Structures are given as structure tokens and as C-alpha cells.
Amino acid sequence: MLKIKEILQAKKKFDKSIVLHTxxxxxxxxxxxxxxxxxxxxxxxxxVRSYKIRGAFNFINSLSLExxxxxxxxxxxxxxxxxxxxxxxxxxxxxxxxxxxxxPSQKVRKTRKFGGEWIEVxxxxxTFDEAFHKSKEYCDKKWAIFVHPFDDLKVxxxxxxxxxxxxxxxxxxxxxxxxxxxGGGGIASGVGTIFKELSPTTQIIGVESDTSxxxxxxxxxxxxxxxxxxxxxxxxxxxxxxxxxxxxxxQKVIDKFDVVKDGLIATTMLGLLDDQWIIVEPAGALSxxxxxxxxxxxxxxxxxxxxxxxxxxxxxxxxxxEKSLKYLDLKRYYVISFPQRPGALKEFLGVLNEGDDIxxxxxxxxxxxERGPALVGIQTYNSANFPKIEKSMxxxxxxxxxxxxxxxxxxLLI
Length: 414
What we know:
The protein is of the alpha/beta class. It has 18 helices and 14 strands.
């Protein structure tokens, strides 16, 4: 189990040039929106844009000089990798990192930049879990030191140092709610442990993406569960299963586990960007997005949300916007069967309302067929317009199918 003394020692040993004391900010906009006192712990302002540097540094710094000679091996979806890279470069430790081939290129580039001559990046397979198994095989062959990105007590201890900064910086006498993101569970286990012991009245909530909710499923079944597959929109928290230490600790210290839909995550990302110029990747928006779920509970309360994972690749912005519009029901995609005759398209346009806009249209006339399919994307300012559109199509005997929430089709488009 974690010990407060060891967490304090880890904090004191941090190299302050690479592990920053990040700000705890009172957020006026969120406080007004939810009628609460909302503070956000800005771990996205770390040099590597996530809290992962804390656990990475604590682990590497605790290795003996003899162990450091063997080199370090790690598997990561990208954020832990950057923490390890910066630490190894600073301390002069050779390391090899296994990352999924699906890792955003921006994270791969920054990992190489932070690590310099001290690192080797190996891209394998599609998910963190697959990269993990490859890294373990390599480690066994090379007799290297393996650093787990979250399921290690030294890593968890490093993440737990967040607690001291929150308590030191917050002006309130007590914190009513603490919302923590969950991927593997390292930060939730570490910070949750200390809050549970020293701030027992604080309601601690661990939040996952609904498309990779392995911790929630494991808690429900009271044992570690490996999901058969996961979507990777929020790639920073896309883990098929929680691991030994994180699961054992989290189930004891987290008061509530819950999920956030990817569409709400996307909407929150855009809100943070447009309203406050806070740039986070999907995983980084989890805790803020969850405030919508508990908005009635937190009125007049003091809430702390930990945000991290600021490594956003702007080439993904169209995907984020699409997910947000779909979630808000302001954009839908239809497959429509058009009669192959003059005037059919003009007839279809009559189903649209003022303010409705066709933003995607793909059609090719087929020979020797009475009808031909078209893929049509419609965007509107008011979600109430879609039932009107569909009712109009039915009246005109237009054959259609709504494919908006069929992920395979969506991935084909964006």
C-alpha cells in the first residue's frame, strides 16, 4: 500500500527543471456554468503535457547506478513515453520504448525529441496492450529494466504527489468533489489513496471513456476484466484492462466509477479551446466533461478536476468536430435511395428546413437501375429539425437510413 512518507520523499527528490509544480486554477467560466467553485489542476502544463512525468521520474530516479546500466524498456500509448524520455535524457539512462503503430505521430515525434540520443522507439501493432506484450518479450531477452506506465508502486507514488500541490494551493477549507481521469488507474490510485486517508469527506470520482471502460467493468465484476476490444478516440486512456496494483488500490479508495461518452469529450475539448484556449487531447477532457453528469450534485460545492494529456494533434480536429456535432445531434448522415430520374434531387431538397445545410453529398448514377444510393450529410442549428426532415422524407416516400452512429461508416468518412 502507498505510504505518505514515501510520497513526500518522492516530491522532495523531483528535479524541478523537468517536474513542475503546476497551477491549480479557479475556473470562472466553469464555476458560473455549474453554480459551484470549480478548480482545475493543470497537469497539461507539464513540459511533457501530462502528469506521467511524475511517476516516470520517481521510478527512474529510484534505480541504482548498476540497474541503470542495463537500460530501460517501457510500453506506452504516448504520454508515459514522453515522461520516461525526458527523465532518461536528464539522468543519462538508455531506454527502449514500445508504442502502438496507431499512436498519433505528434506523440512519437515529441518522444524522440525529449529522449534525444538516449532512446529507441519501436512501433508495434495497434493497442497499448499489444505493445506491452512485445516490450515484455524484448525485456526478457535483453535483461533490461521494465517500467510499467501505471501498475507499479513507484510510478503510482510519483503520481500521488499531485495531492500535496492541490492541498497547498487551494484556498478552500475542504474539497467536496475530486474528479480524476482513469486510463490504467495510476493517478486515481495514487491521489485517491491520499485523499481517502487525509480528506475522508471528499467524494472521489474516477472517470473513463465509455469506449474503453475496463476499470468500470472490472469494478462491476469485482475482478480484473479484459475487454475484447476498445475504440481509441481517447487514446491516452485506451487500456483493455486495469492491472493488479491499480485495481486493488482503486476499488478501495475511489468512491464512484463512471464513464463519459466520446461525443461529450469532444464537445468539452472544443469548449475548452474556444472559451479558454486550453488545449487538451481527448483523454485530457474527461474530468471536465463529467461535470455535466453531476451538475445537480455540485451546486454550491467545491470541485477539483485534474486535467492532463495536452498532446493534441490538430490534424484530429475534424474528427473532434464531427463527434461533437453528432453528440449534440446537429449533424446526421443518411443513405438515401434516389429514383434515377430528372428532378429527384430537387424533390429531395424540399424536405429541408430553413437553416438546414447539406454538408456532404456523394452520388454516382448507376446504369440500368431504377434507383441509386447517395450518402448525404445534413447539418442544422436545431436538433429538432431532424424529426421534421425524416417525417418529410417518409411523406414523399423517400427511402433512407440514418447511419450517423454506425462507427465503421463514420470512420470511412472522417
